[in-house]
Write a structure and sequence with these properties.
mainly alpha; 80% helix; 0% strand
Length: 229
């Protein structure tokens, strides 16, 4: 019983804490000044901000938690993560190099929607209400494209010099992958540990419901920012 309430308390605190800190995964002022005042190839700084953005990007991580929640085989995990990586890498590079400007609040609202989608899918909502679930691999790829535009938007907020831009973008993307790999390793370890306990099946419904709730809060937060900005 104590273990049950312990897990529930952890999930509730996490659900409350994450939205209030969701704005924390931008680029801090010192890093912004450093990047904007320097030109040329800067592999290490861009590796750093790429990894930091993913590790502190709670919206990205919540989506990945939803994707991994019911994946048990390493092959499936690798496939889905590869689809997500392909999607966000394409739009990250395409968005910055093509100078495609998308309102940061709106693209982050879509990312919040991706969290809602995955929680709803994990709860069997599509089968229940529509009699059929969307192609989950295709959905992960499509949402990966939107997540990439979110990353591109954060980079476009910086006044980056053209000199060394492509190399710096590749370094940023590699940093994102390193951060994603680190975060996924932690998530998978926690999930594998949790799956060995009865509380996993007991709380799978409430966990995905909280995932949906957090996604709705992220959408509300971003849309509020859009309308008052």
């Amino acid at each position: 019983m104590l273990q049950r309430y312990g897990w529930l308390s952890f999930i509730v605190i996490l659900a409350i804490w994450l939205p209030t800190n969701a704005i924390a995964h931008g680029v801090d002022d010192d890093t912004r000044r450093f990047l904007e005042q320097n030109s040329g190839v800067q592999i290490i700084p861009f590796l750093y901000i790429g990894a930091k953005h993913m590790i502190t990007g709670y919206d990205h991580l919540l989506f990945l938690v939803g994707v991994l929640f019911f994946l048990y085989k390493s092959r499936d995990i690798l496939l889905y993560v590869s689809m997500f990586t392909l999607g966000h890498s394409l739009t990250l590079l395409f968005g910055v190099l093509s100078d495609i400007q998308i309102n940061a609040y709106l693209i982050d609202a879509v990312i919040g929607f991706s969290v809602v989608y995955k929680g709803f899918d994990n709860l069997g909502g599509f089968n229940h209400f529509f009699g059929k679930s969307p192609n989950t691999k295709l959905a992960v790829l499509i949402f990966g494209l939107f997540h990439g535009f979110g990353l591109a938007t954060k980079l476009q907020e910086l006044q980056l010099a053209d000199n060394g831009l492509i190399t710096n973008l590749i370094a940023f993307n590699v940093g994102v992958e390193l951060g994603q790999f680190t975060a996924l390793a932690i998530i998978i370890l926690i999930m594998n540990f949790w799956r060995k306990h009865n509380s996993f099946s007991q709380f799978s419904t409430i966990t995905n419901s909280l995932l949906m709730s957090t996604g709705f809060m992220l959408i509300g937060f971003q849309l509020t920012g859009y309308f008052i900005s």
